[in-house]
Structure formats: structure tokens, C-alpha cells
Amino acid sequence: ESDTASEISFQFNKHKKTPSIGSHSSDMASVSSVSGSVLSVYSGDFGSVDAQGTVEFALDYDEKNREFQVHVSQCKDLAVVDEKKGRSDPYVKTYLLPDKARMGKRKTSVKKRTVNPIYNEVLRYKIEKMVLLIQKLNLSVWHNDPLGRNSFLGEIEVDLASWDWSNRKLNWYPLKPRSLSAVNGVDHRGVMNLSIKYVPPGSLGKMRPKNPPSGEVHIWVKDVKDLLQLRPSGVDSFVKCYVLPDTSKKSYQKTRIIKRDTNPVFNHTIVYDGFHTEDLKDACVELTVWDHEKLTNHFLGGIRLGLGTGLSYGISVDWMDSTQEEVAFWQEMMSAANEWIEGLLPLRSL
């Protein structure tokens, strides 16, 4: 099983967990986190220049090779990024939306010291035509900075469902500023309906072992609505669960796969034990939704439940990044022991 979003293990076993007991139990909380390989289309944008100029390109679909081709010809009158030196080092980047992680980005070579770059390059995607027709092409132009502080120069977005595929000629298109949704970080990936509960140590009853005493976190994944539709038939989705920072693979849990449904109902409960109350401020429950295919799984979105402090047991970590909604949900669970806390949380890129 492989995923298009790579996974990074954080080897941190300060608080070793033990398997829980029960029909819905899982092994202990130890986890691997979805890395920053699933990034925004606009990641790395540190520029503040206004979009201007035009780009010349053509689109084609090679039926024989089942390949989508973007013929990037040239750009004209791009914005100048380095005004002192009067230069820009532009390149063109493309994504297929809405799932930019699935097909990945393509980009041209960098042309140095010009606002009128000529590329004459073809960016290629191996993709079925039916799948392509429910995508949008995002084509953007960027200034390449040696330190990685790339500047956005303009973009165009093409709805491939309404594209005239008989038009294979090169045409000029004006570059536009980033869309409002992109600037505001809007990235709707669906909504997860779930409940969580914390059972403190010593409140489990006499039938449970008390040596060593520990608590439990219960996670009830009910359903997800409005998932990204990657194929005309829908998606075959499942949910993964980890508890960070522990990274033993024994903690990896997942639901069954719900096929051909963008509104899957899972009704799946997971229990992690070995929790002390003080662990809750340093732990993070990560739930991610994936589309299942034979060769690879595709990341659809996820949530991280924790305090979002950026720290775990005094160590700075990038996965302790819960949103305000996720933090509030986790805090409510911490303050209401032995009670199910219900929530409806938006999925996001992790």
C-alpha cells in the first residue's frame, strides 16, 4: 500500500502505550504523520508583485497514449521582480485540480533575466480522458529565487469540461492575480462528522487492570460529506487514524473502504489506551481520508485534534498545527471526562 502523500516517521517513544482491551480496541498510540508533501498550489509564494503580461499555450489530448499535453510556448511583458537589477527569472508551473496532490505538478525550465521568456516545452500527464474532464488546469508563472523565495507572477485557470478539444492551436491568454479563494486559503475538501471521548485513569471500573493505571481516548468516525470526486464514479474512501507523537506502526488504524460514494458512512470506533491526563496536551489525533486504488492511495483531506501549540513534550513539531475549531474540539473533550463530544470539522490539506 502506497500513498501519493509521503509519510514521515517521528521516532519518539517517551510515553510507550499498551494495547487496549475491547471489541473496538486498537494497539497503542504511535504514529506516522502525513508530511508537507501535500502543499498548497501557492506554497513558497513570498512575492508581492502585481500580475501582468500574457502566456501563450495550447492543450491537447493524445488518445493513443492516454496523455494530456500542455504546450507552453512563451510569455510576454511579465512583471519585474528584482527592480534594482531589472530582472525576472520566470518558469511556468501546472497542476490539475481539485486534487493537486494526485497528479502532481509539472513545470518548465527557468529562463533567466527576461520578462519575455520562450519555452517551447510540453508538460505531460498520464490520465484517462473521462477523469481529465472533471478537472481544472491551473497554469501559473513564477519567478525563481535561488533561496526558494519564489514570487507569483500570474495565473490562468481552465475548466477542462468546457474546453474545445478541437482547438489545438497556440493562443495568448492574460495572466490574472490569484483568485480570492486561493488568497484566503479556501480549500474545501469535505466535512467529517465524529465524536471523541476521554476516559481518565482510575475511572474504568474494577474489571479493568489498574497496573499501570492509564486512560483511554475513544474516536468514533461517523461519516464524511462532500469528498473530492476524483473519478466520474465517485471515490472509494477510507479513514486512517494515528496518535502523534508516538510512531510505532502498531497504532496504525483504518476503517473499511466505502466504494463509489462522496458521502461515505463509516460508523467506526477506535480506542487508544495508555493515556495519562498530562499526555493530552502533547498528543495529537490525526485522521486522514484517502481514495483507494489498486496501485496507490490518494490523499483527500484530514484533521488534527490537539492543542495546536507547535510543541510536543517540549519539542517543536510541524504536525501540532490544529485549527481553532480542532483545538476547541480537543479542549472540550479534555474538560468533559467520560462524555462523548460531537463535532463536524472541515477536512484540510495537512
From TrEMBL:
Pfam families, alphabetized: C2 (PF00168)
GO CC annotation terms, alphabetical: exocytic vesicle; plasma membrane
InterPro entries (alphabetical): C2_dom (IPR000008), C2_domain_sf (IPR035892), SYTL1-5_C2B (IPR043567)
Record's keyword terms, sorted: Cell membrane, Exocytosis, Membrane, Repeat
SMART domains: C2 (SM00239)
BP GO terms, sorted: exocytosis
Domain C2: 51-173, 188-320
Record's subcellular location: Cell membrane
UniProt-recorded Gene Ontology molecular function terms: neurexin family protein binding
SUPFAM superfamilies the UniProt entry points to: C2 domain (Calcium/lipid-binding domain, CaLB)
Gene3D superfamilies per UniProt: C2 domain
Predominant location category: membrane
The name this protein goes by in its record: Synaptotagmin-like protein 2
